[in-house]
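Action item from last week, closing it out:
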Amino acid sequence: MKLCHSILPIVLACVLASCSKEVAPSPDVWAVVNGTQIMRQQVEKTYRSSMPADSPPPSQAEALSMKLRIVEELINTEILLQRAREVNLMATDAEVEQNFAKTKTPLSNDEFERKLQQSGLTVDDLKSEIRRRLSIQKLLNREVTAKINISDAQIAGFYGRNKSQFDLPEPEYHVAEIVITPNPNTPAHNRKNDKAISDATAGSKAAMLAKELTNGADFTQLAMDYSEDSSASTGGDLGYNPESSFSRSDPLLKHAVLSMKVGQVSAPLHLKDGRYVILKLLGKEPAGQRELSDVHVSEGIRQTLRNRDEELLRAAYLAETRNQAHIINYLAREILESGGKLPAD
């Protein structure tokens, strides 16, 4: 009798454990957040759209690791979306359409369709993504960003602790560029997928862009549309660089930078390596100690502190909302139970 009594709690514990384990309603459900399902198809579509077309196929373990990260990102997104609905901060149809139009405006219809096909997305997919992004941004603006207040005392304290960082040993130049390469095999990194394929076409393109700039075109937008190196994504902005760094570049480029005035745009420069480059000098900082009274210093510190606090508060806010959610990651469970194998097709 004593033996039966000693075994009974163990048996009950095993039964309760097996009953408490929630089974996926379908093999295609890879996670559930407060009753909302995250489907395998959704994860696979995100996975395919994030893979560069010319990249080698990942190993099974690499692919599965990426998909697991995508599931976690979709879980976080769903948690924040649900919270945005609760507090009536979902993006409106008008906001979505306005943002969609802004996304599409720089591209022709053919270019837009090509980019959609390359990403594996439809117009509805894109609008859904815009709605999610805008809604979460509205939520975080109210719940996180609005709570950040950087005081003058904090700025002064940061400056005092890091004063040596603001002592420039040499002048620094804030430069933006538009690059055109004559090599037809180099990828175009710009929004219009525009690429010169020879020295003649590169020279003509550089002359066309120079004319556009002379007529008042926005340098940043032209760089994003036509520049052929990775800086196109930031409008050609290279940030601040010390004067000595230009000694390692083409002498023509160095001479142009050092002779330009802030706000000035150069003529197209034909460099020794065959590239054509158009420069814009966005700013210049002289050597020596930069004082806190310099608005660029104080505002730069303010932004640094805001970014730091925002990153911390966003992480804390997401952790707290996850604490309040009921989450089941079926993909993670299947990975553990299968010893790291991909779910069967």
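Closing note: The chain has twelve helices and nine strands.
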